[in-house]
Every structure is written in C-alpha cells, then in structure tokens.
Design goal:
By secondary structure, this protein is of the alpha+beta class. The chain has one domain: Small protein B (Small Protein B, Chain: A, Beta Barrel), CATH 2.40.280. Helices cover about 35% and strands about 35% of the residues. A hairpin with a 2-residue loop joins β8 and β9. The radius of gyration is 19 Å and the shape is globular.
Amino acid sequence: MENKSKKIISNNKKAYHDYFIEEKIEAGIELFGTEVKSVRAGTVNLKDSYVSLKTGEAILIGMHISPYEQGNIFNRDPMRERRLLLHKKEIARLIGKTKETGYSLIPLSVYFSGSLVKIELGLARGKKAYDKRDAIAERDAKRNMDRAIKARQYG
C-alpha cells in the first residue's frame, strides 16, 4: 500500500520564487464528483492560493478548478473554499507555527496518490526582494558554469 503511484496534476512554481519552504505536509482535499473529474482533466490552477487555519479547520482559498464540461447542474463554483483533510493534532501544530511572524501555509502541488486527490502544502516564510534577486543571480551563475563545462567537454 506504500508504493502508490503519484501523478502530479498541477505545480505552484511561483511559491518557490516567493517563499522559503521550511516544511512540506501532505493533505487530502474535500471535493465533489464533478470537481474530481475536472482535476483528472488537469484543469487546476494553484496560483495565488493559500491555506487559512480557522475554527480548527484548514481551508484552501483561491484554488481554481474549472467546471467539468459534462457536469451541467452538478458543477460547483470554481473558486469556492475547499476543506483540507488533516488530523486535529496536525492542524493545532500548524496553527502554532503560522502564529509565528512571517509564516504561512502555501499549496505547492496537487496530485493523485492512487485514486485519491492530495495536495502538498508548504510551511513557508516570505522572501524579500533582495532574496529573490540573490536566487536569480545564483541560478544564472549555475547555468553559466554548466554551459562552460559542457562547451569544454564538447569543444
């Protein structure tokens, strides 16, 4: 049962640009039938979404799941708030962590684990503008080094 396949549906690449990811957590999502069919079609957008921890529940806000083509009256609002399935102890621990200054819960990816839709959350700390510039400069330097090494090997 451990070796369930993990089929990624959507990634939130912007999260890695805007935040330092301290810890990753897996959670289930409460979805309706037409939403699951739409997720299978890959029509999910995680951009600008976040997790709110209120009244002992984890609520995913801002995730867009496009309406299912054949869903007619059963389709739900694409931007509705969705409940995340976590244990109470996990939620309590995350509430404690997010109370610390600068921490928030950001969805990183949506994927199928077997037949279940799961979401990977990141306990994240926001990056400042200079941190983003440093990351870009570091990436460019690595790319230039790789190019130089490749040119030397084949040139």
